[in-house]
Amino acid sequence: RMYGLLAWFNAVVQERLRYTPIGFTKKHEFTEADTNVSLDVIDQWIDNTAGQRAHINPTDVPWAALQVLLSQSLYGGRVDHHFDQLALDGFIQFTFNAKNYSSNAVLAADHEGKPLISLPDSLGRPALEAWIKALPDSNPPSWIGLPVTAEGQLKMIMAQKILTNLSILYGSAGDSATDDDESMEGGGSKYLFDMVERWLKMLPSESSLPEVSPEQTSDASALPMERYIAREVTKGKNIIKYITKEIKLVRSLLLGEVKVTNALRELMNCFQKGVIPKKWRSQYVVSSRMGLSTWIADLAARGSELGKYRPVLAKSSSPAVAVGKISAVKFWIGGMFLPEGLITATRQQCAQVNKWSLEDIELFLEMGGNATSESSQETVVEGLLLEGAKWANGSLQLSDELRCSLPPCKLKWQLKTARQGQVVSFPVYLHDGRTSLVVQVLVASPPSVPPLVWAQRGVGIILQVPV
User: Which of 106, 124, 161, 346 sits between 20 and 30 A of 114, alpha carbons compared?
Assistant: First the structure.
């Protein structure tokens, strides 16, 4: 039975790798060597515990020692992500315990707690082999703790990669203008020229963006959030100015007004393939699956968002007035150029205004309710997505939905001593690729759901809308 439990656990771990980044955030290198060493460790601990006895009571098995070894040294030794480790620990604790020696022990259950698969009554090898042979050839993701819609998400990611590769191949095959592509007087492609013109109309002009003085980004008398917003607007303006300049150079090239250079040739090549130029992508972090047209539209939306910060940038007569201005803003954190800076600034401001130590406060995310900031501890954010669970009827719930949109929420810093009820830590990722962890937030959770179950289901909060 112990070997069977290890085989099941190994199968779950290997199958979850197929669902990266939902099952695990990345493909950890679990190998056959991990299984072989685990078998040796189990044999050694069971032999030491049994001594001269041929059989021992399942409750006498050193479960705690086996769980720690599997979690920290054997399988867990290859995991370097906190929330992947939590998911692994959840499966280890659920699989390796005395309850799984009882008849019809449940190995997997759905989000409502209904059993999906149970072990055979007999503990012998023949019964276990018969049970294995009777398993279906394919099974839903719920067997490994994921929503049933995870398979659809996996296919969608694969389809997006295929489309991206096809776009690159198409662009490579059509570097020169085709017969169907009308040429302009300057020798440029009419299709590319129309696309460039459309992009220039989408991007906000420099004059339409808020004015920021260099002193505002480093004014020691201002609140941390005032300095952060000044830096955010400055960075956004610089990026939009740079991208607009590059696009205008390509337009001039298409009109025959400037000579071609290596830099312009590279830009033209990226435009034809629909790929974001490397220098553009380095300006701020987005999903690796995002195409060029989507990136331009995203940049235009980010630029439009900067306009709402004008009242905050205006000089305030007192810190209380400044806090009031900031409280009136709903921040689209996924559309910020420096999203991590918002977390840092809100933390510093909360500690400064309330005269608390930075080490004594922790970050909560309040979903639903009154989405209005009522104190210096709170910041209203919008545009969040919840993956692996749902928010319904005023509470957090397990769900088979892959993701759901959250209403405007409040980021709230409060003292660690003020924590009440059961809370669970959720990761906040910049995009659905889950490669950029922004922060961890505490969320109130129902007592009926063990904290490790949320990690097993890969629950996380996404800031940017999936591509």
Answer: 124
Q: Are 336 and 298 in contact (CB under 8 A)?
A: no
DSSP 84-135: HHHHHHHHHHHHSSGGGGSTT-EEEE-TTS-EEEE--S--SHHHHHHHHHTS
Question: How far apart are alpha carbons 247 and 47 in whole angstroms?
Answer: 71
How far apart (Å, rounded) are the C-alpha atoms in residues 283 and 295? 12
- Residue 131, phi then psi, degrees to nearest 5: -65, -40
The CA distances from residue 220 to 226, 228, 347, 382, in Å, are: 10, 12, 16, 29
176: tokens are: 């020169």
User: 165 — phi, psi (to 5°)?
Assistant: -65, -40
With CA atoms as reference, report the closest residue to 367 among 395, 330, 387, 348. 395
The alpha helices in 180-223, defined as continuous H runs, are: 190-202
CB 361 within 8 A of CB 351: yes
C-alpha dist (Å) from residue 454 to 185, 240, 364, 401: 61, 39, 16, 14
Return the pLDDT at 371: 67
Query: Can you tell me the distance from the alpha carbon of 269 to that of 262, in angstroms, rounded to the nearest whole number?
Result: 10
Distance CA 177, CA 179 (A): 7
240: which 2 tokens? Answer: 């939009």
346: Cα within 13 Å, side-chain hemisphere: 27
Q: Is 180 exposed, middle or buried (0-12, 13-18, 19+ CB in 10 A)?
A: exposed
Q: Which of 311, 309, 315, 299 is nearest to 236 (CA)?
A: 299
Q: Report which secondary-structure segment, H or E, holds 158.
A: helix 150-173
Structure token digits, residue 73? 């040294």
Q: Which residues of the chain have pLDDT under 70?
A: 167-168, 170-188, 369-371, 373, 466-467
Q: Single out the residue of 323, 235, 247, 248 nearest to residue 282, CA to CA.
A: 235
Please count the residues of the chain: 467
**In the block, which residue shows the tokens 């959030």?**
225
Q: Are 91 and 456 in contact (CB under 8 A)?
A: yes
Contacts of 193 (CB under 8 A, 6+ apart): 184, 251, 254, 255
Rounded to whole angstroms, the Cα distance separating 383 from 302 reads 13
pLDDT for the residue numbered 420: 87
φ, ψ (nearest 5 deg) of residue 272: -65, -35
Q: Tokens standing for 87? A: 């998911």
CA distance 193 to 119: 65
- pLDDT (0 to 100) of residue 170: 66
pLDDT at 369 (0 to 100): 65
Contact of 145 with 456, CB cutoff 8 Å: yes
